[in-house]
Specification:
By secondary structure, this protein is α+β, with helices and mostly antiparallel strands. It has a single domain, classed as Gcn5-related N-acetyltransferase (GNAT) (Aminopeptidase). It has seven helices and seven strands. It has a seven-stranded mixed sheet with strand order 1-2-3-4-5-7-6, sandwiched between helices. Helix 1 crosses helix 3.
Length: 237
């Protein structure tokens, strides 16, 4: 087990050996609580293979994604929270390849994320010269939701982005909880918002049954405005 100086929880960088555990947790958390995933009607294994592993393998390439461990649990089951992300720019987003010959709800979701990212860069062309980071996933294991872990992971990560001289963080928030954290707790600015009932993929309004929240929101944080001293988070608690 990880040494935490008698503290139960530990925030640390995600490692390669965490990929499968994180991918499984993403799958479990999203299928239970993430609004888009809940209505996609895909199996656990399909979601794990097409999205959970994609997210974990993409984000582990840089030492800038973080997990929260419950050190009271056994090895291999300690990860109870994650905040994944990666450095990105407009060219990288344009080059993303999405296999979507037929109507595939997971491809629809990934395509939607790509559209939001492109729109964000195109809103202000100057961002192409800046150092930008995309918050890909944020989640907490069932039973750990009211311990402030998601907020701590977010603030901890933003502090690292500030230290690493990033200019902006961009995130797409689909659920009430994440929208509250980014907007109310961390001061992100809403820059893109579309009502779920109007979002289309291949001519189909495949998210129209989502009514709470009503919108899929893209937020940005200008790190010039981030005061790390007001959001200090220890890596053990």
């Amino acid at each position: 087990m990880e040494e935490t100086n008698n503290m139960r929880f530990l925030i640390r960088v995600m490692k390669k050996e965490d990929v499968e555990e994180v991918a499984r947790l993403i799958t479990t958390v999203h299928r239970a609580r993430e609004p888009i995933t809940k209505i996609l009607n895909v199996s656990e294994e399909e979601y794990y293979e097409k999205y959970g592993m994609l997210a974990a393998e993409t984000c582990v390439k840089e030492p800038l994604s973080f997990v929260c461990l419950d050190t009271h649990l056994v090895d291999g089951e300690q990860i109870v929270g994650f905040r994944l992300g990666y450095t990105f720019n407009e060219q990288m987003v344009q080059q993303e390849i999405i296999e979507n010959k037929n109507f595939d709800p997971i491809c629809g979701m990934i395509t939607l994320l790509k559209e939001y990212k492109l729109q964000w860069f195109q809103m202000e062309p100057d961002k192409t010269r800046l150092k930008c980071f995309f918050f890909f996933n944020l989640g907490v294991k069932e039973g750990y939701e009211k311990l402030g872990i998601a907020t701590k992971l977010t603030e901890f990560s933003i502090n690292v982005m500030k230290q690493e001289a990033y200019d902006y963080v961009f995130v797409i928030a689909s659920a009430n909880g994440s929208q509250y954290i980014f907007e109310r707790k961390c001061g992100f600015k809403e820059v893109i918002a579309n009502e779920y009932e109007n979002i289309e993929y291949k001519g189909i309004k495949f998210l129209k049954s989502i009514t709470n929240p009503k919108k899929l929101i893209g937020y940005e944080l200008n790190l010039c405005n981030w005061e790390a001293s007001k959001h200090m988070v220890p890596n053990t608690f």
